[in-house]
Amino acid sequence: MRRSSDFFAPRAGFTLVELLVVIAIIGTLVGLLLPAVQSAREAARRMACGNNVKQISLGIANFESSNRYMPTSGETKIWTTSSSSTDVQMMQSFFQQMLAYTENTAISAKWDVRRPYWSTAGNNNCSLSGANIPLYRCPSSSQTPEAGGGPNPATGGYFGVTDYMVLAYTDIELATGKRVKTQANYFEGGLSGMTKKTIANITDGTTKSVAFTEAASRDGFYAGKRYLQLGLGTKWYELQNGVPILMSSTDASWVEGGANVGGDAGFDYVSGKPATVPGRWCDSDNGSGWSGAPTEESTVPRTLPLINNNIRSASARTTGALGDFTKNNQGSNDEPYTQHTGVCLFGMFDGSVQSVNTSVDFKVLHCLVNPTDGQVFDTGF
Question: Which domain holds residue 29?
């Protein structure tokens, strides 16, 4: 009689067909699971970004509670006639003002508020400006430190960048959706400008008014139009107890934005003069107005989105092609960017976070930025 073990002799291994079947099954499973894994990772990044937005929003409330006025948006306008204005920049950016109220006191304690961020005098604001602050970065952003506009000679590195943008004003006409550049159609946001504002000035309610939004991957390597030299169109102010004081060339604390700034300054591509760099958290030009696509200022209906969900091309980031400044959301100081598919995160004045659809109507955005128009929207907008 044959032994039972003769019927169960060990096999040499898989046949080629069996191996191919196993590989195919594994490939199919990976194909099915990979999108879910990527989706889960993006959901985690979006949650982390939402936490950043919330902490900054709460910082605004803490600032107002401590100082009895809102921090500034960093920029505003002074109207000389009903149809002409002068740009105003504050020496302190919104994000610099938020440092002490978002657990970044180590930097804020050393900051010299009487000097611009590119100054290397005293406590060396320039060196402090090189800090990479995680709270000011969206985890989904493709923006790199190099986007801060070049090396920081005080530290040997780069300026810290931000993926969020303060909403200083809107000049979109509510009735038509056009951009109308007149004093009557200029509506400041809820943050302080040339006058102090408090929560009481947000008459539409803090849950219905937006303070800032995402600007992830809005590469800030490209300089803004605001020159770092006094008397070249833009008026520069410093804040003293929240009161804006006009800077003058005789002020010892002012470091003229010129040759002595060296590699710290960005520059304007048209004139070659040193200029602001909105991608830096320390630069007050990271505040912006909500105006829509420059190429569609007088177009009704508008076809380009008010919130951008795209990434700038690598060539545009490298060359700084001037043509990019004329496209919707393609300038360094234009509309919001988001890397979260379909939604953009908004920081509200009550400390809450709202996810807004990127195809949101211009009327909704106008009313959210303007805190005193009497038009409010449910938080489920």
Answer: 15-369
